[in-house]
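Tutorial handout. Part one gives the primary structure; part two gives the three-dimensional structure as tokens.
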Amino acid sequence: MIRLLSSLKQTGMSLNDIAEFLKDGCILEHAEGNLDELKEMLEKRIHLLSNHLMDMPMKREKTDRSDSIHSLSEDPNDES
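Part two.
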């Protein structure tokens, strides 16, 4: 579970989305239970991941822009 949480955070997923993603617990624990409930859980997770995937290019562009501004503001004569 910790590895999954860490992986989701490394992708840039917000903590709120991670909490929502993990809210239902381990899918394997539900695998032998109600199939409709399992399907609902999987659909919710797919929806969260799909939304995150669509947001990633915009977040990347924002990060790149921020990095460019930061590098422009650095003093080229500063040797620290």
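Part three, for discussion. The chain has one domain: 12-68. The chain has a mean pLDDT of 82.
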